[in-house]
Every structure is written in structure tokens, then in C-alpha cells.
Sequence to fold (507 residues):
Amino acid sequence: MDDVLLCMEGIDKSFPGVDALKKCRFELKAGEVHALVGENGAGKSTLMKIFAGIYSKDGGRIMYKGKEVNIPTPHAAQQMGISMVHQELNLMSHLTAAQNIFIGREPLRGFGLLLDENVLNEKAQALFDMMHLNLNPRAKVADMSVAKQQMVEIAKALSFNSNVLIFDEPTAALTDVEITELFRIIRQLRDEGVGIIYITHRLEELKEISDRITVLRDGLYMDTVRTEKATIDQIIKMMVGRVIYESSPEIPEHPSEEVVLEVKNLTRGKELKNVSFKLKKGEILGFAGLVGAGRTEVARAVFGADPFDSGDVIVKDKKVNIKRPSDAVAYDIGYLSEDRKRYGLCLGLDVETNIALTIFSKLTGFLGWIKNAKIRSIAKNIVDKLSIRTPSLTQKVKYLSGGNQQKLVVGKWLAKDTGILIFDEPTRGIDVGAKQEIYSLLNDLAHQGKSIIMISSELPEILRMSHRVVVMCEGRVTGELDNEEVTQEGVMQLATQRNGGNLSKNS
Fold:
């Protein structure tokens, strides 16, 4: 179908110190999947949030279904048939999956005075069945993994039967199986005439799912091309203005044999079962596995964020008792959560304060006076070192792009000069250019003798960056592979090996 659903022209949008969009344009047809790509900070999410009624535009016009429209609120957008699946989850953690999906649209009984929980859960279950999801509609969102929360977000958007669906990085936390199911749903909706806007940093997905591609750079419209006629190199060059060889190997030099962290028989309920591994000085140790394998649970237990039932944590040949994150920090361990906005940053505070969070005790003088000049000097050094794009050190973190927020999380641990760093999904939701910078940073840290655990759902990333790979399945370590022998097929075989432990070289 060639019917134009949406035409945005001359769109301007500014935030404090930042011109996010400058005379930007975008077009969507009914029955197409139109990908929107660009580096972090290019303006993709901002442009779509204007269309979804979250932001107001400063200039330009929006034509929707042939008429110029003003979309003042997200509710107004939903009433017009426009739904958005956000990159940063917008769920209420104390409610169930079903309650989140139908918030404000709950089925009622008893003359409209009482919530009909049975019908609510049945409607949510019907959505999950259509999406081929094994989710419990009665489960609280707070108890779900990021990947499962993402699927609830998608189910919520689908529940509106919208004419336009906007997906902002929908696959960032999903497994390959879940991505396949999502693409099936998207194609089904496209065939029914729904217009799909698909924002992604995973460029390999473009050929598989999109019909057209629009590229933004620094808030400017660059071009729109048909997917079948474009190459990934052309798209990257339009995005960043330079050539990035994303597929080149990045294996660092061999680490020393000195073991800086050892975990023995770590067990926590049904989540972790006798997990053991060693981390060497100057090593990048990759953790691979499917969603629910237990990788994040291991990281949180080692860091003291979650208690464990039994097992030992040994730091530099000394058995330690880590009960809370402050204990881990005292033993030179830092943790970069996959959910940076919830656990990694204080969004309402500025850049320099976030960088100083891990070292405030060293930056206070007589009677607790804060050494502002020292904080500013350290923050400026980190911002320059990591190429964090911010108009000033006093910019609030919530206004930074996802990639710059991610680099800021790294920066606060660099400020402390932490020796053992756990990176949980370090490149989730960031673009190809920012990924390259994170990879280079990981290499630099390894060369400096820092020891890194890297948890990632992207197998090419694990293979590219790791000295060794520990593979988990259902809370167990099912294997360990050196970088000389690791393959995607080998990792996937171990990641689906339910009865683990006997395949690890160190078991």
C-alpha cells in the first residue's frame, strides 16, 4: 500500500543547551515497516516522541491521515491510533503484567464499580498467546527480567489496535527466539495495513524487517532509501560521516595468570546452582546465555545487590564477605547494571555529580565541605576521555542520549579507578559509533590491568571481546571456552544444555 499515513516536515525541537531537531522530516506509509536510524543523540526518539504526544514541537507541521494535526498528549495520540513501545520501559513495577497492559481501560463488573480481574487476565493471556509468549499475566512486573518487561511493553502497544506502531529499540533485551517472534508479529501487522516505525541500532536487522530506511544525524534529516537498494556501509556512513568496521575483531592481549576474583559454588534458590568461575588480571571474561540463564543474577550476587544462600567469593586470594554493594566497592568491585536509568544513574542530578558518586568520600574537606573545583576537574577529565557529548558539566543527565548516559555510568567507576568491573549489557540500546567507543574503552581497561566481566546477549560481541567465555543455562555454568575455540554454534549448544557443570574445563 502506498497511502501516506504520516508526514512530518520542518520539525524543530530544543532542550536546555541542545538543538535536538533542526528542520527534520519523516514519512510513513500504511502497510510498511520504516526504519529510523542514527547515532545516539541524532534525534530519532525525540522525533517519535513528538509524534506520540510526549514532547511538543517548537516548529514544523505534522500531517496524519491527510490532515494537519496537533498531538498534545500521549493519551491523545492513542485516541488517534498511535502507540509507542519505548526503549526505556514505562511500566509500573508494583502492578501485574495484565494491569500494566490495560491501565485506564480495565474491564469492570458489578454495575461498573469493581475491577473484573478474571476478564483482565484473560485478555492479557490472549495477547501473550498471539505473541507466543510464556508469560503469566498475574506476575508482578517488578519480579520480571528486563526482557520480559520489554515484551509486556510490546503487548501493551498491540492492545490498542493502532494504525501506527512505533518501536524504539524493541530487541535490545530480547533473545534470538523472542526477536523472531517479534518480527513475525510486525510482519503480520504490516500485512494488515498498520504503519510500523522501527528505531534500531542493530543494523543487521534492517534487511530482515524494514522496507525503507531514514537516517538522521545530529538532529538533521540525511536521506530516505529503500532497504533493498541500500548497503550497511552506506547507512553507517550516513549515520556517522565516517567508516566504521564494526565486524573487525577486538580481542585484547593475553591477560596474566594472576586470579583477582574467584567464585566457588555460588547458589541462590532456583536461580543459581553451584556457579564457579575465575577472573584473571587484565582479562575480559564474557558471560553468555539465553534470557533467564542467571548471568545478571550472578553479577548482582557477587556485587552484594542480592543475597545468596551458599558459596564463596574470593578477591585476590582472600575470602570476603560481601553483604551489600558498599562491601563490594570496598573490595574494588564495580557493577554497571543493564538498567542504567534505574540502577546506574541519578537522572535528576547533573553530569559532574553523577561522575563523583563513587568518590564523594574523597572529595569532602574540613567539616564536610565539598571540593567543587576538584569534582569539576575530575568530571571534565572523564567527559573528555570518554567523549561524552554534553553541553556542560551541569547538564542534567536525563537530557543526555542513551549512549552518553551509558558512557557516564562507565565514567563514575573510572573516576574511582576500580580494578574489577562487571559490565551487564554494556552496549544495550546504543548506536554503532558509541559501541565502537565502548569496545575501545574495554580494550584500554584490559591493557591497563583492569579485570572485566562482560555479560552480553549479543553473541558477536561476546566472541569479539572476550579472552574466555563462560556459558550459562538455567542457573548453571554449562561450559567455558577460550577465544581460540569459541564459536556462535558452540555457545548456543552450551546455552541450551540444561544439565550443566560437567562441560566446564574448570569443573
Remarks:
- The chain has three domains: 4-240, 248-332+419-507, 344-418.
- The longest helix spans residues 176-191.
